[in-house]
Amino acid sequence: MTDTYLRRQPTGLLRDNSSFCLRCGDSRTLHLDGIGQEIWDLLEYPVSHDEVIAHLLASYDVGEAECRQGALSFLAELESFGLLLHVPPPTVAERQRNRYLHLLKRTLTSLVYPENALRISRLEGGTFSDDKKTRTTQMVQVRYTDAEDYATCTLGLRLGSPALSNRSFPRTLIGLAGLDNIEFCAEQIFADGIPGDFLEAGVWQGGASMMMRALQLSHQQENRSVWLADTFDGLPINTAEPDIRYGVDFSKENFPILVAPLRTVSDNFRDLGLLDRNVRFLPGLFAETLPAAHIGPLALLRLDADLYSSTMDALNCLYHRVSPGGFIIVDDYGLPACRQAIDEFRETHSILDPMQWVNETCVFWRRSGAGG
After folding, report:
1. pLDDT for the residue numbered 84
2. For the domain bounded by 5-87, which CATH number is listed?
């Protein structure tokens, strides 16, 4: 009998103290413990029951019968919440692509070496030994000697915690859920043949845009372009009334960590083999660069502009370019000023397409037609 292959449904991800939970519909949530998180991670790409059980047996000291019962019970619970898809078995080529994208996401979020953030924190705080040999041992073993802090750090990187950005130095702060969301949208775009390029307005270190280009290349969609619109000099000073009213000020004087020059972003693409002629940079304020840019149809528009003014500028210049069936992602809908811009724009243009949550701040919707 052929084993069933499963993949998780896209769903909102919420922080729950020292772990996280899944948003199931508008009101229900499902808490995940450590093993639950591990199974959820395995469902990132198509996986069989037997593969889930084999992974858990390799990771934990548990009998096969007990492991199988627990795993199948949890998978049944996920299915009862509508969180699983039954999918065909992946081909060899698809498995290779999935492994690449799995590793890329963890590279962009600094989850490949999460303990480095702890090492920097301990060095800054002077909590390591003054003896060089002892200090070296402490640095090597910090994952295990500071297990609780390591778990907290890993959770923060998974969710994209800005507090870790000056110690872990990720290429993106949107977390795994944000990268998964880009992948979900791209897969739908490719499967349905939605025409157009991808564009991110507000790119910071370029991690989300790097994910976009990697998806295009790995799915043989290399003729599409990825556009990166940003000042590449930090966020502008707030001048719009809603930004001032809500006290929004992410300018580089207050948040120098948010400054990522174009050279830095370009080098980040180059480091991972993703820089080519279809990666297109638009440096400057949105209101000045976007109206004059020779941008064709867009299949994916991702807004990470933080401010009311920048969000509205990007929408006014770009929304009409999004193809029917294309996606709009708004990273900062959880911020009141950005939310006001989105809500006003959707109301003004009679956009009724339902929004879905990605995490606690990010939403997305799929454009249904020319009117919205």
Report:
1. 93
2. 1.10.10.1150
